[in-house]
Amino acid sequence: MTRHGTVIAASGAGAVALPLAAARLDIDSLAVARLAILGAALGQLALYDLRERRIPNRIVLPAIAICAALSLADGVHTSSSLLVATGLVVLLLAVSLASPAALGMGDVKLALLLLCALGGLASTALLLTLELYALVALLLLIRRGRAALGSTLPLAPITAAGCLIALLL
Length: 169
Prior knowledge:
Order of helices and strands: HHHHHHH
Distance between the termini: 33 Å
Radius of gyration: 16 Å
Structural class: mainly alpha
Oligomer: single chain
Shape: globular
Helix content: over 70%
Strand content: under 5%
Low-confidence stretches: none
Number of strands: 0
Number of helices: 7
Mean pLDDT: 88
């Protein structure tokens, strides 16, 4: 399969997987659309992050804008979970500004995408993502020892897994 075909396949798989994972939830059509957009973006972003260790703005920014518009059209439902998710995004922004080598701005935009697409469920997805990231880092450290300390881990594939698990819980 060509590189372009792989991106299309990953995007399509994500666009189908997240709405299917949320099938047991009682959500409206705008929420399903947000999940499809999020899934398609995460599929593409996971590939780019694995290959290039970056989150391209040309994918994440339009997805944020579309999901934010769909959220506004659906009516913003404030909850404590939404406030926690917003706080997590702000915390990630602070970490990125303080230590760009530790967390890039693309990762912060990825967290913002989750907030726009998942609303209150974003806090669960973000916390699961951070837990999965820590687990993968620990396993890498156990397997490679000190050599793993200089390694970087792509966050987008781990974020996709965190979102999927959050929707299945």
